[in-house]
Amino acid sequence: MRRTVVIVVAAAVGLALAGHAAAAPSARIAALQVALRSHGLYKGSVDGVSGPMTRTALLTFQRNHRIRATGKVGMATRCQLGRLGTPLLGQRVLSRGRVGWDVTSLEFRLRRYGLAAKRVDGRFDAALDGSRTLYVNWGSKAHDASGGSRASHRRNVSAGRRRRCPCHA
Asked: Whose CA is closest to 159, among 93, 108, 102, 87?
């Protein structure tokens, strides 16, 4: 009997942890939420969690644009989302005035460095630039295992080759 109780408790804890991990915030989902909000389909907060409101908005968007409604975000969906659907983070150099999926991803990740959650809108503005500066300054005080500055690594990461979205070519 005691062994059964231990197994049941262990299983319950495992399921609880698995459920929490599945609901962990994602910059990718946050970018999707901002893009869907710009189309008037997502009314919730930009929390990076793929919940029922995000899924419903995505499926509605896909049906409205005659994309196979799978609930998955592929190139066709991102192209139809417009400027907020492309490019992915790391595919171009970001600076003030840029708009896109990559900017939203960066904004979402920089919330812990002072960017207000309500500022996650996919537009690179002064508030985002200030949070980015805080992040770079924080990194300049810490060193990675190879002895190099994390900040210089972040500054020197080259932008990948941008694949043009067929919709914006």
From this structure: 93
Tokens of 15: 């399921």
C-alpha span between 116 and 27 (Å, rounded): 15
Q: Is residue 34 part of a domain?
A: yes
Tokens of 37: 């909000």
Separation between Cα atoms, residue 47 and residue 108, nearest integer Å: 9
Helix (H, G, I), strand (E, B) or coil at 149: strand
DSSP state of 92: S
User: What is the span of the domain harbouring residue 132?
Assistant: 24-168
Q: Is residue 31 part of a domain?
A: yes
How many domains are contained in the chain?
A: 1
Task: Report if residue 12 sits inside a domain.
Answer: no
Q: Is residue 119 part of a domain?
A: yes
Give the DSSP per-residue string, 106-126: HHHHGGGGT--GGG-SSB--H
pLDDT digits over 1-11, tens only? 565 544 544 55
- The residue to which tokens 């192209």 are assigned: 79
pLDDT band at 113 (very low <50, low <70, confident <90, very high): confident
